[in-house]
Amino acid sequence: MIKQIITIFLIFFFINNLNAEENTMILKLKDGDVVIELFGDIAPKHVERFKKLAEEKKYDGVVFHRVISGFMAQTGDVQFGNSNSEKFDLSRAGTGGSSYPDLKAEFSEIPHERGTLSMARSADPNSANSQFFICFKKASHLDRQYTVFGKVTNGMEFIDLIKKGEGSNGEVSDPDKIISLSVK
Description:
This protein has helices at 2-22, 44-55, 156-160, and strands spanning 24-29, 32-38, 66-68, 72-75, 116-119, 132-135, 148-154, 180-183. With 184 residues, it is α+β, with helices and mostly antiparallel strands. It has one domain: Cyclophilin-like (Cyclophilin). The model is unreliable at 5-19 (pLDDT under 50). The protein has an 8-stranded antiparallel beta sheet. 37% of the residues are buried.
């Protein structure tokens, strides 16, 4: 009986650990690595898209085109914001997405706070595609209006070092970029 309990415990522990690793991402920036935990149970379609684009290396080289000090850093325009691509156009970064269809909103009660990853979108709540942002601090006005799909668990100090933009829109000239994004 004790052997069965121990065996069940070990299987449960192994499966949970495997799931945790599958939902852990490493975002490499010029100043260091950022560890991200994804919320696959809260926003499964957004997590699936994020991981798919990361596995396809679509985020590698994508610039942080909109960075507002004290608010958030936005990136993820794989169409026009990828500095490694022929289609790179900083003036259009923030207007593009992936070749996949837009996602339906997966709003939740998880608040936008320091380190939150959330999907960017247009005025249409069901228009999220590839762009996302990371909050520098609490942003309650975004709660239940944008899909939260993860959080930074380590390396937020490197997010803080991302080059900030100018003006109220946070447009960045000569922006920092994602070196790579991968599953841990």
